[in-house]
């Protein structure tokens, strides 16, 4: 009788259990629990104030300790009919249109120069960072000392024989907003240039060497070669500076011009502060805050579109 013997490896294959081919065990889901405190913090301190802005904007609230009543859309009509609000919109638009391009373009060019590591570039990085280390009141005092009627700028004009051009720069309706824009640009351009220099420093050297072999000068290499490489980073920095200029201008206005003369230097962010803490009209203030939020959201979406962000 003929016996059929199995192949040598067949027995071992038969002895393997299905568990040998089972899927690896799932990872524990304990990481979700660790995210709960951050989620609660975000809901309470981020989403909560945002919802509160919209709620207060629909109320008639003439002060913190005063009775509250529902106003509906009355605050919106009041704000839109107020010429001060329209001046604030115009001033904010001028501030963003002038300050943001000057800051981003100037900072990128300055950062590109620093990234080329010229002699003394390490010291230059520290010098560019100095405005970011000075507190806002200190910077405002410096600008007040320079631009006051008896300040350094008028004194320099007088020494140069151009005393007829001297003016009360911070108290003139035609120059007050321009002085605030100059302060914004001076405060932000150095810090932003250091950020650009750090990002440009991470670009591979082969890219710059290839541009030099092709005969590209610094101007062409800066805008045609390096700028497309860090385009996404430029978009991020532009967003940050846009938000800082839009929402942070109130402190400079408060310290230097108080929104005047008249409303010539009143911005939207300062109008929110003025109506809430000086005029004690919280409903009006937060209605302007809603407009400010919508402007910020529209600006961020526009910047993302311009720089083609994919995040």
TrEMBL record:
One Pfam family matching this protein: BPD_transp_1
Bilayer-crossing regions: 32-59, 93-114, 126-147, 175-198, 229-247, 283-303
Stored InterPro entries: MetI-like, MetI-like_sf, UgpAE/MalFG_permease
Keywords: Cell membrane, Membrane, Transmembrane, Transmembrane helix, Transport
Major localisation: membrane
Domain ABC transmembrane type-1: 89-303
Membrane topology, record value: Multi-pass membrane protein
Gene3D superfamilies according to UniProt: MetI-like
SUPFAM superfamilies found in the cross-reference section: MetI-like (SSF161098)
Signal peptide span: none
Superkingdom of origin organism: Bacteria
Tagged with keyword DNA-binding: no
Region: Disordered, residue numbers: 1-25
Subcellular location, record wording: Cell membrane
Keyword Membrane: yes
Protein family per UniProt: Belongs to the binding-protein-dependent transport system permease family.
Protein name: N-Acetyl-D-glucosamine ABC transport system, permease protein
């Amino acid at each position: 009788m003929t016996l059929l013997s199995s192949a040598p490896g067949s027995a071992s294959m038969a002895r393997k259990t299905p568990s040998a081919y089972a899927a690896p065990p799932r990872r524990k889901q304990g990481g979700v629990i660790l995210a709960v405190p951050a989620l609660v913090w975000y809901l309470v301190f981020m989403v909560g104030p945002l919802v509160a802005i919209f709620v207060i904007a629909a109320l008639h609230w003439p002060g913190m300790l005063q009775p509250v009543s529902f106003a509906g859309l009355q605050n919106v009509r009041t704000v839109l009919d107020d010429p001060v609000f329209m001046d604030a919109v115009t001033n904010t638009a001028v501030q963003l249109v002038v300050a943001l391009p000057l800051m981003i373009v100037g900072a990128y060019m300055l950062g590109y120069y620093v990234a080329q590591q010229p002699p003394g570039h390490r010291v230059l990085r520290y010098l560019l960072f100095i405005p970011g280390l000075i507190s806002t009141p200190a910077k405002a005092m410096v600008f007040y000392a320079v631009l006051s009627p008896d300040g350094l700028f008028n004194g320099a004009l007088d020494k140069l024989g151009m005393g007829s051009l001297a003016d009360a720069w911070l108290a003139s309706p035609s120059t007050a907003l321009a002085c605030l824009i100059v302060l914004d640009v001076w405060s932000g351009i150095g810090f932003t240039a250091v950020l650009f220099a750090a990002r440009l420093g991470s670009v591979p050297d082969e890219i710059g060497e290839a541009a030099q072999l092709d005969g590209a000068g610094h101007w062409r290499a800066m805008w045609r070669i390096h700028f497309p490489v860090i385009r996404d980073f430029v978009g991020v920095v532009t967003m940050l500076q846009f938000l800082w200029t839009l929402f942070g201008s109130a402190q400079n206005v408060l310290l230097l011009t108080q929104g005047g003369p008249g409303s010539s230097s009143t911005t939207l962010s300062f109008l929110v502060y003025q109506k809430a803490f000086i005029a004690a009209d919280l409903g009006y203030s937060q209605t302007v805050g809603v407009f400010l939020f919508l402007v910020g959201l529209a600006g961020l979406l526009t910047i993302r579109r311009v720089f083609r962000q994919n995040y």
